[in-house]
Amino acid sequence: MSLIHVDSAARRLRFGGMEMDCEIGRGGVCPAADKREGDGCTPLGRWPLRGVLLRPGRVDPTGVKLPWRWIREGDGWSDDSADPAYNRPVRLPRPFSAESLWRKDDAYDVIVVLGQNDAPPVPEAGSAIFFHLYEGRPTAGCIAVDRADMVRLLPLLQPGDGMEIA
């Protein structure tokens, strides 16, 4: 197992011999036990890389070794702790709150799903903590990097790898 190392104070990400700038949540970082839905904090800890969601026509999946699938319009991620599918992929529309994965910006052209609060999900303990493309501002709690850096890094990631946020 290899780890992507995130130095949240320096806003730097390291993997193998690569190092790059990264962005964290608008609320800074917090211990995973203190993470709450909507707080904008990036949870500290080690999180497995669960898989990759890719937007068709935006990124070439050639060489991606992690499990991956295409996203499509209507794909979402539940962020409503009352939803039985909390912190899981869902189809939109639905009667509970959910974030659309089909965005107008490019941030979700590549989504690496981090295994934070998913085994099983605890209501209100945070959802949709992703590793995605930088959108020009702090994230809602995710880790983000520039497209060119993600494209270089993505084919190097293997099943069993994780991300350590410190």
UniProtKB/TrEMBL annotation:
GO annotation terms (biological process): cell wall organization; peptidoglycan biosynthetic process; regulation of cell shape
Protein origin, superkingdom: Bacteria
Keywords, in A-Z order: Cell shape, Cell wall biogenesis/degradation, Peptidoglycan synthesis
Pathway per the UniProt entry: Cell wall biogenesis; peptidoglycan biosynthesis
Residues annotated as catalytic: 132 (proton donor/acceptor), 142 (nucleophile)
GO molecular function: transferase activity
Domain (L,D-TPase catalytic): residue spans on this chain: 1-166
InterPro entries tied to this protein: LD_TPept_cat_dom (IPR005490)
Cited PANTHER family: BLR0621 PROTEIN
Protein name: L,D-TPase catalytic domain-containing protein
Organism: Sphingobium baderi
